[in-house]
Design goal:
Blueprint: E1 2-4, H1 8-14, H2 25-34, E2 37-42, E3 47-49, E4 57-71, E5 77-84, E6 87-89, E7 104-117, H3 118-127, H4 129-153, H5 158-169, E8 176-178, H6 183-189, H7 194-206, E9 210-213, E10 216-219, H8 222-228
Antiparallel strand pairs: 1-2, 2-7, 3-7, 4-5, 4-6, 4-7, 8-10, 9-10
């Protein structure tokens, strides 16, 4: 990582993320003076933080993309998610009891990272109730992502894992889902091989369960799909 100066562009991005959402302008301005932080350029394939190391900083990805992986109890590398900027990440572990990161964060698209010290963040959220509320909401959403990931992996078949993935991504009142990953990434995310996943998706298309158009998947038989994973 290479340290760089904070720009006006970085500031605009920073105040777009949920952590700073809804804060008065005077509070936003003062945050930059009260938070002890540094901005870094991050390169592709660079590891930002490693699994089982202490979480000592608030991490905010301002630009770029990260891949999150864990090594499970059997020594397997398991993809958890992709983090797309702008977004804070690893927030639940900053003030956890063991204070260690459960995953490794690797840059897949170069970008910009903000790191703020734990002590300065704690002081800031102690003084600003609205920021504390936002921090707790962000932490809760991170935990929700983990639960969603585990829900897919508890399914035994490739079809069931893919259906759970689709149902978790589906928005209310919509009969289609936009897939965030390419086929290789999605296969890693579901812990299956790419050929096996492609074969199963083609089967579901032929059976009239789904229709695929690029990264969009239309759920043609929603009730039947839900019934499969009950």
């Amino acid at each position: 990582m290479e340290a760089v100066c904070l720009t006006e562009k970085h500031q605009k991005i920073l105040f777009q993320i949920p952590l700073f959402e809804g804060l008065p302008d005077n509070i936003k301005t003062s945050i930059l003076d009260r938070l002890d932080f540094q901005i870094y350029d991050i390169a592709k394939n660079e590891i930002i933080a490693r699994q089982d190391t202490p979480c000592k900083s608030l991490y905010i990805l301002l630009e770029g993309q990260l891949r999150v992986d864990i090594i499970d109890g059997w020594g397997n590398n398991v993809m958890i998610e992709d983090i797309i900027a702008p977004r804070a990440f690893a927030t639940p572990h900053l003030f956890s009891k063991d204070n260690t990161l459960p995953a490794t964060f690797t840059v897949t698209i170069k970008g910009t990272l903000l790191k703020a010290t734990k002590d300065s963040l704690f002081k800031l959220i102690s003084e600003e109730p609205n920021l504390l509320k936002n921090f707790l909401c962000v932490t809760g959403n991170c935990n929700k992502c983990t639960v969603t990931r585990l829900r897919a992996l508890t399914q035994k078949s490739i079809r069931n894992r893919f259906i759970v993935y689709l149902l978790e991504k589906k928005r209310p009142e919509k009969d289609w889902v936009t897939i965030e990953h390419n086929h290789s990434q999605l296969a890693d995310y579901l812990c299956v091989t790419r050929p096996a996943l492609s074969k199963e998706i083609n089967k579901m298309i032929k059976e009239g369960l789904i229709h695929v158009d690029g990264k969009k998947v239309q759920l043609l038989e929603l009730s039947q799909l839900r019934q499969i994973v009950l």
